[in-house]
Amino acid sequence: MKKIGIPSNNLLHPNSHFGTNYVDYIQKNYIDGITNAHALPIVLPIGDPKLAKNYIDSVDALVLAGGQDVSPFYFGEDPQINLHETDTDRDAFEVALVLEAIKQEKPILGICRGLQIINVALGGTLFQDLNSQYQDLKVRHNQYPTKWYTPTHRLILKRVSWLQSFLDDQSLVNSFHHQAVKKLGDGLQLDAVSTDNVVEAFSDEARHIYAVQWHPEMLLMKYPEAQKLFDAFVQK
After folding, report:
1. Whole-angstrom Cα distance, residue 20 to residue 128?
2. Catalytic residue (one of 94, 100, 200, 217)
3. pLDDT per residue over 123-136, tens digit each?
4. What per-residue confidence (pLDDT) applies to 6?
5. Among 100, 112, 141, 208, which one carries the catalytic annotation?
6. Torsions phi, psi for 150 (to 5 deg)
7. Helix (H) or strand (E) holding 204
8. What is the pLDDT of residue 12?
9. By CB neighbour count within 10 A (0-12 exposed, 13-18 middle, 19+ buried), where does 224 fall?
10. Which PANTHER family has this protein been placed in (predicted)?
11. C-alpha–C-alpha distance, residues 86 and 69, integer Å
């Protein structure tokens, strides 16, 4: 059984349930997507980037989940006024994991923030806030409060890629992001965009890198066919 490492998120602030007993966690839907693909999820708690080699040594592939904004430190910008909360410890840890996984030639799947962290790890840049920085915005990319599992906008597939095995130009996806790729990182190829041309997927088959901006793990709550994305990744 393939072992899939999935780095955790962590609570940054006290809350009514845990107080100041901070926890590392990962949403169950990511675990479901991996286990339904007959792979074994291994949650990697946020740690020192120097541990990246040890963690990647212990798994067969890496899945990077959604979460906080990516710090503009990684693409040479000061924080824009509409930047949301960042977690520099998580950023540094995940960038180290991405670079180590590439070094060890182990597959990587990025989802939402995961796509963005892969992009900046490879020298790409981000729109810190689509609403204020992207002039051609026509699609609502943060569909909240619409339910997580509801598809809301269409994809346009840009080339023949791994996506064709489970998507077409009529496919709808959900959308919960306000950051997005501005410039693609080194070696990454554009696979899909939204109808207003925001990057929705990229890959680099040679380095076993695959990434989507939407949330297939949330779609799983109502649409079993969303599992095909996880299946396709594990099969690779």
Report:
1. 29
2. 217
3. 999 999 999 999 99
4. 98
5. 112
6. -90, 120
7. strand 199-204
8. 72
9. exposed
10. GLUTAMINE AMIDOTRANSFERASE PB2B2.05-RELATED (PTHR43235)
11. 5
200 noted as active-site residue: no
Structure tokens that stand for 222 in this block: 């109502």
Q: How many CB atoms lie under 10 A from the CB of residue 70? A: 26
Express each pLDDT in 54-112 by its tens digit.
999 999 999 999 999 999 999 999 999 999 999 999 999 999 999 999 999 999 999 99
Which positions ≥6 away from 177 have C-beta within 8 Å? Answer: 66, 112, 113, 130, 141, 142, 213
- Cβ neighbours of residue 145 closer than 8 Å, sequence gap 6 or more: none
217 is catalytic: yes
Nearest-angstrom CA–CA distance, 114 and 108:
9
189-194 β-sheet, strand order: 40-44, 3-7, 61-64, 108-111, 209-212, 199-204, 189-194, 153-157, 172-173
Helical pair 227-235 and 28-36, crossing angle rounded to 10 deg: 60
Structure tokens at 128: 């810190």
Tokens 């619409």 belong to which residue?
Answer: 146
Does the active-site annotation cover 177? no
